[in-house]
Amino acid sequence: MTRHMLFKLAVALSFSCLAYAGDKLQQNSAVKSTDAEQWSIEESKSADKVNLDFVAKEGTRISVDVSPDGEFIAFDLLGHIYQMSIKGGEAKALTSGRSWNINPRYSADGKTLAFTSDRSGSEDIWLLDRDSGEFENLTDMPEAVFSPRWSADGSAIYASSLDLGVKLSGWRFKLRGGKKQLIEPKEIFQPLARFTEYPDKQLVLFEQLDDKLYQGGCPYQKPCTP
Q1: Residue 110: helix, strand or coil by DSSP?
Q2: What is the rounded CA–CA span in Å between residue 15 and residue 29?
Q3: Average pLDDT for residues 196-223, to the nearest whole number?
Q4: Are the beta carbons of 208 and 191 closer than 8 angstroms?
Q5: Residue 150 confidence (pLDDT)
Q6: Beta strand ranges found along the chain (DSSP E)
Q7: Choice among 22-31, 127-136, 144-153, 190-199 with the minimum mean pLDDT
Q8: For 24-38, 59-73, 188-202, which range has the lowest pLDDT when averaged over its residues?
Q9: What is the pLDDT of residues 137-178, one digit of tens each?
C-alpha cells in the first residue's frame, strides 16, 4: 500500500469518526422528538440476553453525596443510584432498568434526590421523591443535560448542557414553574461543573477549563514540544 493510499485511508477514517459522533448526537436529539412514542430505552434490541448476578463491595469513579441529616449516603455504581446508611451495611437500589443514572445530589431538606439519567432517551436531570419513590424529569431538553447542583434555598438546580454543535452551556432550572435561565454559554468542549451559589453576594461560582487542551504527550509544556 502506497503512502498516498495510507493518507487517503487516514483522512477517510477521520471523517468517518466525526460523522459517527455527529450522528450519535443527532440520534439523542431525535429520540425526544419523532421517535419518543415508538422507542423506549427499556426495550432491548438484542436477541440474546445475559443476566449477571454478583456482589459489589467497592467501586471506582463513583459520585457520592451525604444526606443533610448525615444519616445516609447516595452514590452511583454501574449506571444506577444506590442509598445506604452512612454507618455502612447493605445498599438499596433507587433506580433500575436499562437507563444510565449518575451524579446523585440531595436537596437541602433531604426530601429530593437529583441525578442525571438517560431514561428519557438522552441525558436529563431527574428528581426522585424519597418518600413516594416517584420520578420527575426536571429539564426535558433536546440537548443532553448533566451534573446537577442545588441552589442554596433548594428552589432551583444548576446543570450543564451539550448541544449538537458540541457547545456547552450552564443553566439554572426552577423546580416550580419549569422556567430555565441561561447562565453561561460557551463554545469550547469543556463542561461547566460544581456550581455553587452565594446568594448574599449574588454570585454563582462554577468550574471550567477555559483554555485549549494541551497536545497529547506534552501536558506541562507551552508550547508543547516532543
Answers
A1: coil
A2: 21
A3: 67
A4: yes
A5: 95
A6: 64-66, 72-77, 80-85, 92-93, 101-106, 112-117, 124-129, 135-137, 144-150, 156-162, 168-174, 180-185, 193-198, 203-207
A7: 22-31
A8: 24-38
A9: 999 998 899 999 999 899 999 998 888 777 788 889 999 877
156 close to 171: Cβ distance less than 8 angstroms: no
- Give the C-alpha separation, 72 to 118, whole Å: 25
Instruction: Provide the pLDDT confidence category of residue 2 given band limits of 50, 70 and 90.
Output: very low
Do 113 and 160 touch, CB atoms closer than 8 A? no
Alpha-carbon span 79 to 69, nearest angstrom: 26
- Choose among 66, 61, 100: nearest CA to 83: 66
Residue 105 pairs in a beta bridge with 114
Nearest to 59 by CA among 82, 36, 26, 27: 82
Find out whether 114 and 125 touch, Cβ atoms under 8 Å.
yes
Distance separating alpha carbons of residues 121 and 124, to the nearest angstrom: 9
Reply yes or no on whether the pLDDT at 5 is more than 50.
no
Question: What is the three-class DSSP state of 2?
Answer: coil
Residue with cell 439554572: 172
Angle, CA of 99, 113 and 44, to the nearest 5°: 10
CB-based burial label for 137 (10 Å; 0-12, 13-18, 19+) = middle
Q: Taking Cα atoms as reference points, which of 108, 110, 109 lies closest to residue 83?
A: 110
Secondary structure percentages of the chain, helix, strand, coil, to 5? 15, 35, 50
Cα separation, 127 vs 159, whole angstroms? 13
**Which residue, chain included where needed, has cell 469518526?**
17
Q: Which helix (H) or strand (E) holds 21?
A: helix 3-31
CA 115/CA 94 separation, integer angstroms: 11
